[in-house]
Amino acid sequence: MRFLYSLFLITLSIMACAHAQSRSIDAFAASQIEQSGAPGVAYATIDNGKIETGAHGKRLKGSDSPVLPDTPFLIGSISKSFTAMAIMQLVEAGRIELDAPVADYLDTFQNSPAGIITIRQLLSHTSGFSTLQGNDAQTLPHRNEDSLQSQVERIADWTPASPPGTQWRYSNANYIILGAIIEQVSGQDFASYIQSQILAPIGMNDSFLSDGKSHDNMAVGHQPWFWSKRRVDDTSTNRVMAPAGGVVATASDLALYLVVMMNGQDDVISAKSKAMMMRPANPVSPYYGLGWGIDPHSGLISHSGLTPGVETYAVFSPDTGKGAVILANANSGMGFGTNERLFSEI
Questions:
Q1: Model confidence at 257, in pLDDT bands (50, 70, 90)?
Q2: Angle, nearest 10°, between helix axes 172-186 and 79-92?
Q3: Which one of 59, 76, 118, 240 has the fewest beta carbons within 10 angstroms of its own beta carbon?
Q4: What is the pLDDT of residues 281-309, one digit of tens each?
Q5: What's the start-to-end Cα distance of the chain, in Å?
Q6: 66-75, 168-177, 218-227 — which is least confidently predicted?
Q7: Considering only 73-87, 113-127, 148-162, which range has the smallest mean pLDDT?
Q8: Do residues 25 and 14 make contact, with C-beta atoms less than 8 angstroms apart?
Q9: DSSP 3-state percent helix, strand, coil across the chain (nearest 5)
Q10: What distance in Å separates the CA atoms of residue 246 and residue 164, rounded to the nearest whole number?
Q11: E strand or H helix at 314, and its extent?
């Protein structure tokens, strides 16, 4: 994560100079491949709708396969913003209410201690489910490995670690539940919904959803191994985790996505809904909106992603129309908590 954060700071420092921007970021990215141990990195910058992209290194360490701006990476928790956008589409269609309880949409929560949690609380990580419970949701045995509905049946048996609406606790469990709600309300499986209602309309043609398979063209993850990095044995994707971390996207496509978030227009969702996603959703979570992290001091909107062997970061400023996407196929061993501390210092 240190490498991504350093590149992120360089990006911010030169955003104001359009001529120097791409040269400086590209040179820095190239210089950091060897220093950081990341086999490859792809990036994109946005300046009021204008996108510039670049990439360095290899898709797999020691191979001849290069990382390109159009190389797909498993983007991890940046995926949560796509799930949030899907929920907002269904809110606009009158099929979901943000302050309605989960039990209104999923029968399995009718008699659950978590049934009173609202959609807004799930989106803003104020449901009461803890980070640990969210991690457990990734490892629960599935009766049907590809079924979100089976997974939420197990989550429905849990009691939230704190009363809903009283604390901010980042938890993947929240977004697994939201994925199941999207399926129930839309009548489509989660992947089909995101592909048809968000990725395709935006033009994210090289991006897709986790489907439980390995893909030869994806960036291969690498993890720390003594003084080097070694590949993750299996970079297959996981359908059950798709709503929380399973979008597979390229730097080029993610830049298009950030342009949509900043354009102030009614398109895949309304400008009003976009603004709501980028505002604090709850007094107990001033640094998180609906699927996006918020820095109230700088006005930056961002999210990181951390999956085995891959680290990602997306950041933008709606006020200036500038943003950046950074994808690297290696872990530094630091983790989400460290990234949040660094983010709080920006």
A1: very high
A2: 40
A3: 118
A4: 988 989 999 999 999 888 999 999 988 88
A5: 15
A6: 218-227
A7: 148-162
A8: yes
A9: 40, 15, 45
A10: 26
A11: strand 310-317
Transcribe 38-105 into DSSP letters.
-SEEEEEEEETTEEEEEEEEBSSTTSS-B--TT--EE-GGGHHHHHHHHHHHHHHTTS--TTSBGGGT
Edge-to-edge strands, sheet with 322-328: 50-57, 40-47, 322-328, 310-317, 301-307, 293-294
Is residue 277 classed exposed, middle or buried when 0-12, 13-18 and 19+ CB atoms within 10 A define those classes? buried
Number of Cβ within a 10 Å radius of residue 93: 10
Distance CA(75)–CA(194), nearest Å, equals 15
CA distances from 127 to 115, 122, 235 (A): 10, 5, 30
Query: In this predicted structure, what is the pLDDT of residue 334?
Result: 36
Give the whole-angstrom CA distance, residue 2 versus residue 103.
41
Confidence class of residue 340 from pLDDT cuts 50, 70 and 90?
very low
Tell me: pLDDT of 28 over 70.
no
Distant-in-sequence, close-in-space partners of 39: CB < 8 Å, separation ≥ 6: 33, 57, 58, 59, 60, 61, 67, 220, 222, 229, 329, 330
- Rounded to an integer, the average pLDDT of 119-139 is 89
| Domain positions in the chain | 2-72+218-238+248-345
Structurally, at CATH architecture level, domain 2-72+218-238+248-345 sits in 3-Layer(aba) Sandwich (3.40)
- Name which of 335, 273, 272, 324 is nearest 41 in CA terms: 324
* Overall average pLDDT of the 104-114 stretch: 96
Q: What confidence score (pLDDT) does residue 40 get?
A: 85
The answer to whether 23 and 31 have CB atoms below 8 angstroms apart is no
